[in-house]
Amino acid sequence: MDTLDVLIVGGGPIGIACGLEAKKNGLKYLILEKGTIVNSLFNYPVNMQFFSSSERLEIDEIPFISKEAKPKRNEALEYYRRIVTSNKLNIQLFEKVRSIDKEGSLFNIISDKGGYKARKVIIATGFYDLPNLLDIPGEELPKVSHYYNDPHYYASQKLAVIGASNSAVDAALECWRKGAEVTMIVREPEIGHRVKYWVRPDIINRIEEGSIKAYFNANVKEIREGELLVETPEGILTLENDFVLALTGYQPNFSFLEQCGIQLSKDDKRLPDYNQDTMETNVKGLYLAGVICGGMETHKWFIENSRIHAKMIVSDILKKKKQTAAI
To answer: Do residues 11 and 113 share a domain?
Structure first.
């Protein structure tokens, strides 16, 4: 098997941007994606609308045309899929990387379908696969989900939405509009200010008018088959309940990063060690791109401010390749 110049782990928008940049510069590359093209976006709620405008989601200056200024999920799927197919990117889907080990100057990459050797590796895997668990009794029940897809499923049901992020607020509003009896359980004293500015007044008004019930400064203590135990400032409440959406955020696969040899900060942020000018980690030749760079600060990096990582990384790879050739 021929040795790759660079292997890219993750076929999301930033992984695709890295692939485009590698191809443009004549590097022998391969993208491995454990799911479908832009798998995380595919698993977003069906009606999701981005916070960013379409031009800020563009990669490699390829125009992203949407019906509204802020595109919907289906438009983003179409955009990134067409980039992959039109540019004939070398991507292998539904192939999960199991391990990355450095042997001398080369990396040995093992997936669930084979093995590869590469001079450089880029990890662009995002953070959407591992939910932040509540660690409470009953969280494993079938009625509990950490992902929200379609509001129709919850019509005429008593639904508890845990959290007050964008995803939680969208779920609460959409499910209420499809006929669910929605109760929000929010750890903070109010709806978060990071919620999309055109949505935040909507959820506040629905709560104030009583259409959606909300408990603030509250925590779910236990989930049972037909009810929840909720700790509130007024004491423990028992709420009737059919389904729970625990939308409490997600985190990168830190164990995978550590297995690759990447050092993480010892504090709660768990920031990976990398050079901010080149995106190269403490493991020489191993780079990070996209939201995974932020550790637990998952709001720090997103498509519009991390798409530049592709050019930074490939520029450094080419520089090092030239230096090696000159020796």
So the answer is: yes
Q: Using alpha carbons, select from 323, 318, 286, 271 the residue that is nearest to residue 97.
A: 286
pLDDT, tens only, 271-287: 999 999 999 999 999 99
The whole model's pTM is what? Answer: 0.91
Structure tokens, 264:
């993480």
Average pLDDT across the chain, whole number = 95
As a whole number of Å, the end-to-end CA separation of the chain is 26
Q: Do 115 and 8 fall into the same domain?
A: yes
**d(C-alpha 290, C-alpha 310), whole Å:** 9
Question: How many angstroms separate the CA atoms of 66 and 92, rounded?
Answer: 28
Q: Assess whether 115 and 254 both reside in one domain.
A: yes
pLDDT given at position 327: 64
* Closest to 162 (Cα-Cα) out of 174, 145, 177, 178: 145
What DSSP string describes 142-171? TTEES----GGGGTTSEEEEE--SHHHHHH
72 and 44, same domain (yes or no): yes
Domain end position, chosen among 207, 223, 246: 246
Same domain, 20 and 126: yes
